Structures are given as C-alpha cells and as structure tokens.
Amino acid sequence: MDDHQRNLPSQVAGDRASLTGFLQYQRETLAWKCSGLSVEQLRERAVPPSALSLLGLVRHMAEVERSWFRNVVSGEGTQPHWPRLTPDRSPAFDVDSADPDEAFRIWEEECARSRATVDAAASLDTTVPWQDEVFSLRYVLTHMIEEYARHNGHADLLRERLDGSTGE
C-alpha cells in the first residue's frame, strides 16, 4: 500500500472532537486500504462466495453515510445512489461494471456532507426521530465508527488476499 495520509485522533480531545476524529480516521483507513490498486483489484471478490470487494465496501459506506447523516440526522429522505433491484442483495456490492472514480467521488461527497451536518449540530445530545425511534448525534457517530471499523477489518483481509499488503 502506498503511504496514504491518516490523521491520528487526539488522545486528549473532548467528546465531539474524539468522535469526529475517530470517524475521520476510519474513513482515511478505508481509503488507504483501497490505494494503489487497479480497477480489477478494487472490483475483485477476493473471498468467494462472498460478494465483498473493496469497491463494494466504498459504495456501501457511501450509502451508509447518506442514510445516517442525510436521511436520519437531517431528515432529507434521499434515495440510494445505487437502487436496490432485488430485496435480498445490496446493489452497492454489484461491482462487475462499477466505476471506481464514480464510487470514490460519491463516497467523498457523502463524507463531506456528513462532516458539515455534524459541524452544524448544536450538540452531541441533539436527537432526531426516525421510524419510531430516536437517535442522538452521539449515537450516530459511535455507530458510524463501529460500522467503518467492522468493514475496515474486511478491507484488511481483502487487501492482504489481493496483494499481500498488511497493516492496521
């Protein structure tokens, strides 16, 4: 893997800076795991029969960012970038003809919107109703860190399988 820049979160920051710092670090980790690979490598389902690929993870995380920050936190009601054609499979993982440049552009745009949404919120205790539930911004940030961390574990395995690269 190339020397992709990742910024370590502060070890002494307050809650908001800690949560946003760890989330950004996880985003940078996914970008790092995808760096320096060919289109074919990004699309490769490296552990059959799983549909997981690095490109699929990027597309999935773009949808997760959109869903949680634009739909849940901001109440926008946006539609998926890659609409579901069948109820049993996420189209984000259908990458055989997917364009990596498009996927990374959409993901980066969603991450920027998410950061702006968090920056505009008055407090981590800000709550939003969503489908008979209520979520605080603190919960959403914590969930997003967990979501990225889990998928970055997948990315570690996929990347090692593709070219032997390892690293946290």
TrEMBL record:
Stated name of the protein: DinB family protein
Highest classification ranks of the organism: Bacteria, Bacillati, Actinomycetota, Actinomycetes, Kitasatosporales
